[in-house]
Amino acid sequence: MTLVLLTPIGLDDGSWREVKLPPVDLVTHVFPGFGGRARLIPAPDMAQLADEVVEAYEGPLDLVGVSMGGMVAQNIAVRHPGRVNSLLTACTGAASDPATMHDRAATVESAGMAGVLDTTLERWFTTEALSRRPQPAGVIYARDTLLALDPEAFADGWRAIATHDVRGGLPDVRVPTTCIAGDADAASPVARGEEIARLVPNCRFVVLAGPHMMHLENPEGFGAALVAHLGWARGG
């Protein structure tokens, strides 16, 4: 089995640098337009992003996704149930608000990455992390990665998120699932994770201390939750 780590919007494999990952066969999947990958024209939707992941790796997959990555993971579980061994979603929901996502896409296209940087970081991290000096490694990584990103690629990501709605399919997801929520998540409050946990029959719901970018601000807690999930999902 392969552990597939699915990144948030705009980020790349450096997203997992501070997380103590388990000693298993794993890959980090970076979506089109991010981490040096070329954009897809036209921009992909959630179904296309899910299908791309399944086509990229062989055998049963343990899927771990944060934010946008968690949305793609859910779409994989719904569209390709026979390929999924387990599912861990973090700081995400079962559906998006399309109008908000399209507004974010239009804003970054007009303002550029520098124009949306502060509001993005404020959604992603706690005030304490953003004001700390020196700043935590996760904040520095996110800031530098976003500023280097093509605004059109960021807009593509928001438009893909606008197509996310798997509420009708989650009750059919039967694999071991862990849903993590952050108690300080301003972008995806605890209630959104609770909805996933209600819809998926075999789901453990875990609330950790931290914000939307849980794995960047609280990598220790996230890593421990990931190890616990794999222990449960793989039977020890």
Radius of gyration based on Cα positions: 16 Å
The residue fraction in helices comes out at 40-55%
Low-confidence stretches: none
Q: What is the terminal separation in angstroms?
A: 14 Å
Main sheet characteristics: 6 strands, parallel
- What is the overall pLDDT average? 97
Approximate strand percentage: 5-15%
Q: Strand sequence of the main sheet, in spatial order?
A: 2-1-3-4-5-6
Record field, number of beta strands: 6
Total of DSSP H or I helical runs spanning 4+ residues: 9
Apparent shape: globular
Structural class: alpha/beta
Instruction: Give the ordered list of helices and strands.
Output: EEHEHEHHHHEHEHH
Describe this structure in words.
Helices cover 45% and strands 14% of the residues. The chain has nine helices and six strands, in the order ββαβαβααααβαβαα. It has helices at 46-56, 68-79, 98-124, 127-131, 137-147, 151-161, 190-199, 214-217, 219-233, and strands spanning 2-6, 26-29, 61-66, 84-90, 177-182, 203-208. Strands 2-1-3-4-5-6 form a six-stranded parallel sheet, with helices on both faces. It starts with a strand and ends with a helix.
